[in-house]
Amino acid sequence: MNANIVLLPGDGIGPEVVNESRLVLEAVARRHGHRFEFTEHLLGGCAIDAKGTAMPDGTLAACLAADAVLLGAVGGPKWDDPTAKVRPEQGLLGLRRGMQLYANLRPVRPLPALEHISPLKPERIRGVDFLVVRELTGGLYFGERGRKGSGEGEQAFDTMIYSKAEIRRVVKLAFKLAKGRRGLVTSIDKANVLESSRLWRQVAAEEGKDQPGIRLEHQLVDSAAMRLVTHAAQFDVLVTENMFGDILTDEAAVLAGSLGLLPSASLGDGTKGVYEPIHGSAPDIAGKGIANPVGTILSAAMLLRHSLGLETEAAEIEQAVERALKEGNHTADLGGKQPLSTSRMGQAIQQRLG
Questions:
Q1: Dihedral of CA 278/279/281/287: which sign?
Q2: Which of 49, 81, 222, 269 is catalytic?
Q3: Which residue segments constitute the domains of the chain, with CATH numbers given?
């Protein structure tokens, strides 16, 4: 297979972890006779510094022409002025909108070899294996916002708006994914308070009637947050709106024990997608060579599976990661007496491919 993959290293530790993922993808390509062509482009703070915009036109054009996109991280203290007209996150949001990526997939499966690093008791995380499907282009993050009034009476507002079509397409995807798993979809909302959530629940229920063999349950977001730390093994596929999904997936990362371990995929109706670890740019450790590349490498596995249709190769990477961790190869965030550098961790995974 020939594939064109755009790399968006971004800011902070992004370039370091993306480089290790590229090396793993190149190793997989050599093993299986594929040809992956990589091109790098600017996104986020580095793009602001170089071009004055968080997402240059050339970046979006390259991503639209590519088979898939692998992203590191964007942002950092240098650009962390909430009043700034141009912010790194605008690049990420613009990329998702420009590529029409409306669903973010975040798998959560704590590895037995790393039970000890989770702040939760081992019995709370055993058997946990779920997938969060987060709506990505609607809700509060994209609704009308602003301020009005002055003095102590000044008000700020953000508007959560969803159409039936926006809800339906992401719920349909959740049901599709559940068919290949344990057949349970949990739709998360705040229907006891929010009108947008009542519409969400209505559409989810409508779709559930047309899904034989798939069980649908509704859960309020606050009780779902509690279940994530008490009975997470009961979940299979969770589907929810943008902000709820943003918050719940960061909470879910605690189950695995480190933000550095978890991957994600942002998808639309076609095969193209953006793949990235769920962690941020971690500017405090950038350039030190100690960042954990596992989340980005697992994101590369998702890229192979969802955009290129290479299931065998994706599973090979995931198994190599699991073996490397089981055999005691850890970066500093995972503890241990002799933590590996970013590059040494990447090499440990490469050595266990196949």
A1: negative
A2: 222
A3: 1-99+257-354 (3.40.718.10), 119-256 (3.40.718.10)
